[in-house]
Write a structure and sequence with these properties.
Layout lengths: L5 H39 L15 H37 L11 H7 L13 H7 L13 H6 L6 H16 L8 H15 L2 H8 L5 H18 L8 H17 L4 H16 L3 H12 L3 H11 L4 H25 L10 H21 L42 E11 L9 E8 L4 E3 L3 E2 L4 E10 L6 E8 L7 E2 L9 E2 L8 E11 L10 E4 L12 E8 L5 E11 L7 E11 L2 E7 L8 E4 L4 E4 L11 E7 L2 E7 L2 H15 L8 H8 L16 H8 L3 H4 L8 H17 L11 H14 L3 H17 L6 H29 L9 H7 L17 H23 L1 H4 L8 H12 L10 H37 L8 H17 L1 H7 L2 H25 L14 H25 L9 H13 L7 H34 L65 H20 L4 H35 L11 H20 L5 H40 L7 H14 L9 H21 L3 H25 L7 H20 L4 H4 L2 H18 L13 H8 L1
Antiparallel strand pairs: 1-5, 1-11, 2-3, 2-4, 2-6, 3-8, 6-9, 10-11, 12-13, 12-18, 13-14, 14-15, 16-17, 17-18
Helix pairs in contact: 1-2, 1-13, 2-12, 2-21, 6-7, 7-9, 9-10, 12-20, 13-18, 14-15, 14-16, 20-21, 20-22, 22-23, 22-25, 23-24, 23-25, 23-27, 25-27, 25-28, 28-29, 28-31, 28-32, 31-32, 31-33, 34-35, 34-36, 35-36, 35-37, 36-37, 36-38, 37-38, 38-40, 38-41, 40-42, 41-42, 41-44, 42-44
Length: about 1450
């Protein structure tokens, strides 16, 4: 025991006073609690007197029972406190001197991430293979190097407040309140993450369980954005990995908010470091919190147990192990064995106990002791249990003198010499020092007037009693010898060298010889030097200090009187040293001066030391004690009581005896009642700690024998309390202990013999209780502990049965020698994870109970996998749960469970999961619907909070009243509810695919069938939805088509899922909607046909300038899905009352962009084409999954479009002919816009037929060709009719000028009349009005056709035919008058018409080959000839000529 210093005494006094203050109330409360309770109850009574005139007083019986209950409660609390104090003593000893377990140091990154990984890595030393097989999923938590800082920063779990803070930060970002720059894609990703993840009730529940960390938030967001980023288009110079990194950096910025990341990182790094490797003080503090130990109690126990004294702790361990060996022998002798599954295990149980002690002895023996010898004893050669000592080998284990050779370090410091008066002041002096047998050192030079040095010399020796010689030298005045001397070594002593420059002589006989020991004073002292009579200075003194260090393997030393039977046979005072050779080997050695080997030694194995009375007849020595062994007694005596106590304590630690010697002075103090006093020389400081411990009631805990306690129950208690402490700390541990906690629990189990199976069974029970209470527990941890217990119970039970069969034959016959040897065979290592071969009945029964509880828990977790592992967190937990369930279903550790059995159990769980998940989303949708109804209520703005509080109550009331639900659920509301349910169903299935289908990945193929079960789960989930869907669709009106969005929503999801496409529900959906689609198409076809008929009957053929101005624009209810485009038909079908689907928001078709700025077709045709396109778009957007039916729908759409376009073309052609027939034949005819519109209808029909009637099969292509042919024929007919009209107009003009034909009466009359009138008035040129009228007609018709008809090809064709037909008509007319000469008026008109026509059609782009036809040449030649003839007549042509007609045109213009 260390001598307490004055500061320690003062601090102990403070602690003592604090403990008095702390304990006094407890003691007084325990004594006075009944009275206080009664007094407090009496004091509370006046408060009730105001309400009662006469308060009722408690009956004596009730008061007595209350006092009894309080007393029992206080007694239970006191017993609990004592139990925790005793447990804390055992824990403190484990922390103070661990020799079995170590804190793991290879788990920093994983520990920082989740606070749980590999905390059990040192649980047992022989579990590497088992852990490798079970914990293969732990690699999931590895991080890239770049993420280490963030992991440091976010290693703790998230609380409710932190989750709300995170929500607020992301909401602020979405509102734009932050300075973070982000693009639209990132904002959308954050919006989805915020709505789907952060606001999820499953995340809130996981936060409540304490299993959700910031890393989980980050990983979910990372997985959430990966698909989004991968779907983005490639950008040159910007990789998608860069985008991902940028988005994650922005996420970290949003998550941290305004907090400085450097400060947070420093704080979390320090916290994580303390979490990993803890010092002893930190471990003490941790378990003080776990066990509820007060600080002053810890200080008292720490001092009294001498936890800072490693020798005392090692001795305590040796005593405990010796006690365990004795207990094993007692069990064997008394036959009080635990109840095992096999009788044959009783013998093995004793061997296991001894083997475990043997292993602990080996561990203790391997602990470093000192630099002493390497002597080692056999492991079980220890203790007072002679039954396990091999006496035949006793001589082989005896120590030799060379085994106890020690090594000492001496420091000799020479300060000054006093009394040196005979030398001149300037004389040089110095000193030399040496340890006998070693080298000689010298000090620096000094003047005789001031002989001070302060020089230190360091020596090493193996002598426990060395001789240190110091001599004084001075400078010689005569030339006696030449010696060189190495000058100046500072203040360090230097070895002497021969050949100094100056001459020195020794002051003859001036020296001092010291014999230091490790117990000698360390401070400098004056020593009188030995001088001769011739020396003038007889009173020379030297001040020096000699410090002799104590080797680690020297436990005590000093002078003792000794007498023994075999050694030290004469009572004599000797110098003794207690030497520790190893952890189990100590020797009492006596030394002489200048000797390195002991003169005699006593090996302390088997000896017991104790105080004794003075022995008569032994002179010398004052305080006696002895060492006793069977057949031998050695008596020792010291000169004072303090030395005796120190020696007895040291030898008590060395012998490892169970009996603790009590000093007689302490016995007197304990037995005295105030009259006796302690001896004057008793070391009171040695009893201070023990007195304080006894004073505060701690002595019973310190002196308690550990072997007398049931450490299985104590360990169960400390492990449970440690788990509670661990689950309440800042780390998302998921049930994993911290490294420091595992270290202490490992040491406790090994040191106190707690069976590994019992440890894990208790751990499993505690974890299952926490899991049932709602805590998140890692299934990998459960798997490890369960596999440990299963390997122990099943493996050893199986082996025990084999041994039981080998033990005896039926009929009670004695077993043979060969079979008796079977019992001694050890179990295979693979069947003994904890190294034990025995299995108790209690372990087996408790294991079966735990197994059943674990099975129920796992099945419940799989059933609620969406809520137990939300969004796939913790990562890989679902895999581990499935793996653990498979292990739990195994009958033993060898026979694997059939795969079909595992699948059957999981299939049943998933069926229940489907029902639970659907019920929850149904409730959620119902509550959401109630919210929407109330928010739409006009009172919402005035009473929002009140209405929020009534939502749930109203929903529950509706559930209790089905009739009320039926009355309120209109078909439209029901359909809206089903559509919302469909969105939730799709969201659930998509999340299952994204977060819960990872167990069937390529890297983990043990559960490859999981995907099949998830498909079955999805089908069952959809079938539950199908019931509500069928019910909702059944009540819909047969004339309503509002359910098509529901089909498209479900079908778009199902057709993209490889497993659900054309599955059971998908086929049911098709069967449900196929008749509806067919009926819809039938009605649409009939309706469009009717609209064509009625539209063309009332068609005005006015061109449609803007389509959107004449088309309806009706918005459907705001549903978050892609609405199929369904055309609106305002005209009902004759004979049917059909409510056709309303038109959604119109978006202009792509084919309309080119004709948007020009005149288009008629309203009927445009409406027809748009309806056909919208209908086909609607059918195409359905994405019908069945190929045959999809082809049928497509073909029908094409054929229907062909029929409709054919009808449109025919009606347009008929209308064109009718309109043209009714028009005028004179030059006053102007082409109406309706005719141009009809032309445009044909143009549109041709364009739309290419899109709406395009077929892939050969037969349909032929049908499409018929449509093209029909359109072409119709266009040809329309062009021919138009040309015929133009020809008719020209014929009317020619008919007018035919009256001037030569030889007719009308011609002569007209000529005479013109001549006569020209004499009196200015008569215009005859015939020019007719020519001008026709030219104007031609030009106007050309302009209208060019401006209003949208097809250039048709215009060119029309112009070509028009020019050719009219030119042929002129040629024919002139040919008929070949024998007649043209009248001058006829000639002028024809010349003007021909020249203008030629010029105008050339400007319209008619080709020269058409313009310069043979007929044109014939007409031109005839007119040229007639012009030449008419020019010689009277009056001439008056400037009109075929040659100069262009100039005339300019004049006319």
């Amino acid at each position: 025991m260390l001598d307490p210093s004055s500061s320690e005494e003062e601090s102990d006094g403070i602690v003592e006073e604090e403990s008095k203050e702390a304990l006094a109330p407890q003691a007084s409360s325990s004594r006075l609690s009944p009275n206080r309770n009664s007094e407090s109850s009496d004091r509370l009574q006046p408060s009730s007197r105001g309400s009662s005139a006469r308060p009722a007083s408690p009956s004596p019986t009730a008061a007595g029972e209350q006092e009894k209950e309080d007393a029992e409660r206080l007694q239970r609390e006191e017993e609990e406190r004592k139990r925790k104090l005793q447990l804390y003593v055992f824990v403190m000893r484990c922390v103070a001197y661990p020799f079995n377990a170590k804190q793991p140091t290879d788990m920093a990154r994983r520990q920082l991430k989740t606070g749980r990984e590999r905390c059990f890595s040192e649980l047992t030393t022989d579990q590497n293979t088992l852990k490798g097989q079970i914990r293969r999923t732990s690699e999931r938590d590895g991080f890239d190097e770049g993420e280490g800082d963030w992991v440091h920063f976010e290693s703790v779990f998230i609380t409710k407040q932190q989750l709300q803070t995170t929500k607020d930060r992301f909401e602020s970002f979405l509102k734009g309140d932050t300075q973070i720059v982000a693009d639209e894609a990132f904002i959308n990703a954050v919006q989805s993450y915020y709505e789907v993840f952060l606001k999820s009730d499953r995340v809130a529940k996981m936060v409540q369980t304490g299993g959700f960390s910031a890393v989980d938030c980050r990983e979910v967001f990372k997985r959430h954005i990966e698909k989004r980023v991968r779907s983005l288009p490639e950008i040159d110079g910007l990789s998608k990995e860069t985008v991902l990194s940028s988005w994650m950096a922005k996420f970290d910025t949003i998550y941290r908010g305004d907090e400085d990341p450097r400060k947070a990182q420093q704080r979390m790094t320090a916290s994580a470091a303390s979490e990993l490797i803890l010092s002893k003080d930190q471990l003490y503090e941790m378990f003080q919190q776990i066990l509820g130990i007060k600080k002053f109690e810890h200080q008292l126990l720490y001092q009294a147990c001498q936890l800072d004294n490693l020798d005392e702790q090692a001795a305590q361990i040796r005593r405990e192990l010796d006690g365990r060996l004795q207990m094993a022998d007692q069990i064997a002798r008394a036959g009080k064995f635990p109840k095992f599954v096999s009788k044959e295990m009783e013998a093995m149980y004793i061997e296991e106990l001894k083997s475990s002690v043997n292993q602990l002895m080996a561990n203790l023996e391997s602990m470093p002791v000192s630099k002493g010898g390497e002597f080692k004893l056999q492991k079980l050669k220890r203790g007072h249990n002679t039954s396990i000592i091999d006496m035949g080998q006793e001589d082989e284990n005896q120590l030799s003198k060379s085994d106890v050779v020690l090594s000492f370090t001496l420091e000799v410091v020479i300060m000054e010499v006093q009394g040196l008066k005979s030398l001149a002041p300037n004389r040089i002096v110095y000193c030399t020092m040496e340890v006998e047998g070693g080298e000689k050192l010298q000090t620096d030079q000094a003047e005789a007037s001031k002989p001070t040095w302060g020089t230190q010399g360091d020596f090493t020796t193996t002598h426990p009693l060395p001789a240190v010689k110091v001599k004084l030298f001075t400078e010689s005045t005569g030339v006696l010898a030449l010696e060189d001397k190495e000058l100046g070594r500072g203040y360090d002593a230097m070895p002497l060298a021969k050949g100094d420059i100056a001459l020195y002589i020794s002051l003859t006989g001036v020296r001092v010889v010291l014999h230091p020991t490790p117990n000698s004073p360390k401070q400098s002292e004056l020593h009188k030097m030995t001088v001769t009579k011739a020396c003038p200075d007889q009173d020379l003194k030297i001040k020096l200090a000699v410090r002799m260090d104590k080797p680690q393997n020297m436990k005590a030393c000093g002078y003792l009187w000794a007498f023994g039977k075999n050694v030290w046979k004469r009572w004599k005072k000797r110098f003794f040293v207690l030497v520790q050779v190893s952890q189990y080997t100590f020797a009492m050695c006596s030394y002489r001066e200048k000797k390195s080997e002991p003169q005699e030694l006593l090996q302390l194995d088997g000896y017991t030391v104790d105080y004794t009375d003075p022995q008569p007849g032994l002179d010398g020595g004052r305080a006696f004690f002895n060492a006793v062994k069977e057949g031998d007694t050695v008596i020792f005596a010291s000169d004072d009581e303090q030395d005796r106590i120190l020696w007895v304590q040291a030898m008590y630690r060395a012998t490892g005896q169970s009996h603790k010697p009590v000093p007689p002075t302490q016995v007197q103090k304990l037995n005295s009642k105030g009259g006796a006093s302690a001896q004057m020389d008793a070391p009171i400081s040695q009893f201070l700690d023990a007195d304080r411990a006894q004073k505060h009631g701690m002595d019973e805990f310190i002196s308690a024998n550990p072997c007398s306690f049931d450490h299985a129950l104590l360990f169960e208690m400390v492990q449970r309390l440690t788990l509670d402490h661990r689950l309440n700390d800042n780390f998302a541990c998921l049930g994993w202990f911290s490294p420091g906690q595992v270290f202490v629990l490992d040491e406790y189990c090994a040191r106190n013999g707690v069976r590994g199976c019992h440890r894990h069974l208790c751990y499993l029970g505690d974890l299952l209780e926490r899991a049932d209470a709602g805590n998140m527990i890692d299934p990998t941890l459960l798997h490890y502990s369960f596999a440990f217990c299963a390997s122990h119970v099943h493996g050893n039970s199986q082996r025990g049965s084999e041994l039981q069969g080998c033990g005896s034959k039926p009929g009670g016959k004695k077993e043979s020698k060969k079979k008796r040897n079977c019992k001694a065979q050890p179990f295979p290592v693979c069947l003994r994870p904890d190294g034990l071969g025995t299995v108790t009945v209690e372990e087996k029964e408790r294991f079966e109970e735990i197994k059943e509880r674990l099975r129920v828990l796992l099945e419940n977790q799989i059933t609620n996998f969406r809520y137990c592992f939300p969004f796939g967190r913790p990562e890989g937990a679902l895999k581990a749960t499935l793996s653990l369930l498979e292990r739990v279903l195994m009958k033993d550790i060898v026979t694997p469970v059939p795969q079909e059995e595992v699948k059957g159990v999981i299939r049943k769980c998933l069926e229940q999961a489907a029902q639970i998940n659907y019920q929850r989303i149904t409730d959620y949708a119902r509550v959401e619907g109630k919210k929407r109804e109330m928010y739409d209520h006009p009172v919402y703005s005035l009473a929002t909070q009140v209405m929020d509080l009534t939502i749930l109550e109203k929903s529950l009331k509706d559930q209790r009243d089905p009739e009320n639900v039926a009355n309120l659920a209109t078909p439209a509301k029901k359909l809206e509810h089903v559509i919302r349910l469909a969105e939730l169903v799709i969201e659930v299935l998509q999340q299952n695919q994204d977060h819960h289908a990872e167990v069937s990945t390529a890297s983990f193929t043990a559960f490859a069938w999981w995907s099949d079960l998830m498909v079955e789960h999805a089908e069952h989930f959809l079938s539950l939805y199908g019931v509500d869907m069928d019910a909702a669709l059944e009540i819909q009106s047969p004339e309503s088509w509002d359910s098509f969005p529901l089909f498209q929503l479900l079908n778009d999801f199902l057709r993209t899922d490889y497993h659900l496409c054309n599955g059971k529900f998908h086929k049911h959906l098709q069967d449900l909607y196929a008749p509806l689609v067919v009926r819809y198409v039938d009605l649409m076809e009939s309706s469009i046909s009717q609209s064509i008929h009625r539209g063309f009957e009332r068609e005005s053929w006015e061109p449609v300038k803007s389509l959107t101005s004449n088309l309806p624009n009706v918005n459907l209810p705001n549903v978050n899905l892609q609405i199929p485009k369904v055309p609106n038909l305002p005209v009902p079908v004759a004979g049917l009352s059909v409510n056709l689907p309303q038109m959604p928001s119109f978006s202009t078709p792509s084919w309309m962009a080119a004709i948007y700025d020009s005149d288009n077709g008629s309203g009927t045709s445009e409406d027809l084409f748009w309806k056909l396109d919208a209908l086909q778009t609607f059918i195409r957007d359905l994405h019908w999954p069945e190929e045959e039916f999809a082809k049928h729908l497509d073909n029908r759409m094409k054929l229907m479009s062909s029929d409709m376009i054919e009808s449109c073309v025919k009606r347009t052609r008929a209308a064109f002919e009718s309109k043209l027939t009714k028009s005028s034949r004179s030059t006053d005819f102007r082409i109406p816009l309706s005719l141009c519109t009809m032309f445009n209808v044909m143009v549109d029909a041709k364009d739309q037929s290419a899109k709406l009637c395009a077929m892939e099969m050969g037969q349909e292509k032929q049908y499409h060709s018929k449509i093209d042919d029909l359109i072409e024929e119709s266009v040809k007919d329309m062009i021919a009719l138009m040309v015929a009209k133009f020809v008719a107009v020209l014929e009317s003009v020619l008919a007018k000028i035919s009256r001037y034909d030569e030889g007719t009466l009308f011609s002569s009359f007209l000529s005479f009349t013109v001549k006569a009138a020209s004499k009196y008035v200015d008569v215009p040129k005859p015939g020019m009005d007719v020519a001008d009228g026709y030219v104007t007609f031609v030009r106007h018709s050309q302009d209208i056709l060019r401006d209003k008809v949208n097809e250039e090809v048709y215009i060119e064709r029309l112009f070509d035919q028009w020019y050719t037909a009219t030119m042929n008509l002129l040629g024919t007319w002139l040919t008929d008058r070949m024998d007649q000469q043209l009248h001058v008026y006829q000639l002028k008109i024809l010349i003007r018409i021909v020249k203008k026509k030629y010029r105008d059609f050339r400007l319209q782009g008619v080709l020269d080959s058409t313009l310069n036809s043979k007929m044109y040449d014939t007409v031109r030649n005839r007119l040229t000839l007639e012009e030449a003839t008419a020019s010689v007549r009277e009056g001439g042509m008056q400037g009109i000529s075929m040659k100069d007609s262009d100039e005339e045109d300019e004049e006319d213009d």
